[in-house]
Write a structure and sequence with these properties.
Layout (H helix, E strand, L loop, with lengths): L11 H9 L1 H14 L3 H10 L3 H13 L9
């Protein structure tokens, strides 16, 4: 069984599927960052998460099993 992944502690396969769908990737991405306490990173995802960040999320989720983190402060 796959271990926990980035979106709300869901499995890797479910998180990868959510990352592939643009709307769910956008919503789950900024909600995840807000839940981590990263307000600025969440706002950046809220504003710019529908384009290049979405593509980077798919790549990072497939390769490293977590979403792209532009700001990890």
């Amino acid at each position: 069984m796959a271990g926990k992944s980035d979106y709300f502690g869901l499995s890797y396969v479910v998180s990868l599927i959510l990352a592939i769908i643009p709307v769910t990737s956008w919503v789950c991405g900024f909600v995840t960052r807000f839940m981590e306490g990263k307000i600025v990173a969440g706002l950046i995802r809220l504003i710019f998460g529908w384009n290049i960040i979405w593509i980077l999320d798919i790549i990072f989720m497939a390769v490293q099993k977590h979403i792209f983190r532009l700001l990890n402060v």
